[in-house]
UniProtKB/TrEMBL annotation:
This protein's UniProt keywords: Metal-binding, Molybdenum, Oxidoreductase
Pfam families in the record: Mo-co_dimer, Oxidored_molyb
Cofactor field: Mo-molybdopterin
InterPro entries in the cross-refs: Ig_E-set, MoCF_OxRdtse_dimer, Mopterin_OxRdtase_euk, OxRdtase_Mopterin-bd_dom, OxRdtase_Mopterin-bd_sf
UniProt keyword Metal-binding present: yes
Sequence ranges assigned to domain Moybdenum cofactor oxidoreductase dimerisation in this UniProt record: 242-351
Organism of this sequence: Bacillus salipaludis
Protein name: Sulfite oxidase
Residue ranges of every copy of the Oxidoreductase molybdopterin-binding domain listed in the record: 47-216
Gene3D superfamilies noted in UniProt: 2.60.40.650, Oxidoreductase, molybdopterin-binding domain
Tree of life domain: Bacteria
Length: 354
């Protein structure tokens, strides 16, 4: 927006998907830097925000361990720390695009953010307690709770032992060099790089080691791929992020002047790095390589761009597909599942040139 030759900066706002509980996504074209500000980081909740104070807060590590412990906030924040820059994406990101439609928060493309998280490695915490032989999973209980199918439950999920003990899985207390905000997990949040956001449990209160398979409602009911509308066969759990991308500029259905324009966006994946991004300006008939704008880093998005001279009186269907180091790429058709997780169909916009 221009006025008297001065650029008037517009402050972006989150897009509300629901108010109680609060669920808001980021306008995707504002994701420019490697760190999304806390105020612009998407918010995903199943229940209302918990009321937690540092004075009354303790983190309990219990279950199939040699020495259970109860730790105060100050004890944990004084431990050796690690910093991880990683994206967090809701597994329901882009759910609004599934056909046939599915129930759930109708996220478009902005249920994703990237930040720098500081905390203590989970493996370091568990080195104090020890883990009993035969341990199988680690369960993480958050401070948020409410009604689900007539029962009062906490948000609670598990990780298999081999994933939980990876060095970059941390119990974080800082986000972008500041204490975690109350809306993003204060005082502690589990960060699990490479997995969808449901694994990064917020308001972490209890860590419990178990020697069985956990079956809480947010583990075996929600966050499961159900391929069929009316039956549960062939279901598999939601885990790592799918390779994916978005087009940030131009906007879908935008009208542009003829001439040279930059098509830009971001691409990301779970357990790997983005190796290439391809663009089609003719609805997928031909593909060309887009330019990658930053060095590849595992668990972080890749910015990409492509410059093209667009001709007058034309309509362009622009498609984008990303490829990663594990041989995965975006499919022509997303894998439909009845709860609407993991949408990663080839990204597409249509623009018109006057």
């Amino acid at each position: 927006m221009y006025y008297n030759d001065r650029v008037l900066k517009t402050k972006p706002h989150l897009i509300t998907r629901s108010l109680i509980p609060e669920n808001q996504e980021t306008p995707i074209h504002f994701l420019e830097d490697s760190e999304t500000p806390s105020t612009m980081t998407f918010r995903r909740n199943h229940f209302i925000y918990p009321d937690i104070s540092i004075q009354a807060y303790f983190l309990t590590i219990t279950g199939s361990v040699k020495t259970p412990v109860i730790l105060h906030y100050n004890q944990i924040t004084s431990m050796p720390s690690q910093t991880v820059t990683a994206l967090v994406e809701c597994s329901g990101n882009k759910r609004a695009y599934f056909e046939p439609k599915v129930f759930g928060e109708q996220w478009t493309e902005g249920a994703i953010s990237q930040g720098t998280w500081k905390g203590v490695p989970l493996s370091y915490l568990l080195s104090f307690t020890g883990i009993n032989e035969g341990a199988r999973e680690i369960v993480f209980l958050g401070g948020d709770s409410g009604e689900k199918k007539g029962l009062h439950v906490h948000f609670e999920r598990s990780l298999p032992l081999e994933k939980a003990l990876v060095s970059n899985v941390i119990v974080a207390w800082e986000h972008n060099q500041k204490p975690l905000s109350p809306k993003h997990g204060f005082p502690f949040r589990l960060i699990v790089p490479g997995w969808y956001g449901m694994a990064s449990v917020k308001w972490l209160k209890t860590i419990r080691v178990i020697d069985t398979q956990f079956s809480g409602p947010f583990q075996t009911d929600d966050y499961v791929y159900y391929p069929f509308m009316d039956q549960d066969k062939d279901s598999v759990p939601v885990t790592s992020n799918h390779v994916n991308s978005v087009i940030q500029q131009p906007l879908d259905r935008q009208i542009l002047k003829p001439g040279q324009h930059e098509v830009t966006g971001i691409a990301w994946t779970g357990e790997g790095i983005i190796t290439s991004v391809e663009i089609s300006l003719d609805n997928g008939a031909t593909w060309k390589s887009a330019s990658l704008q930053n060095n590849p880093h595992k668990y972080q998005w890749m910015k990409w761009s492509y410059s093209h001279v667009f001709e007058r009186n034309n309509e362009y269907t622009i498609k984008i597909r990303a490829f990663d180091s594990n041989g995965h790429s975006q499919p022509n058709k997303a894998f439909w599942n009845r709860k609407g997780y993991g949408y990663n169909e080839i990204s597409q916009i249509i623009i018109q040139i006057e």
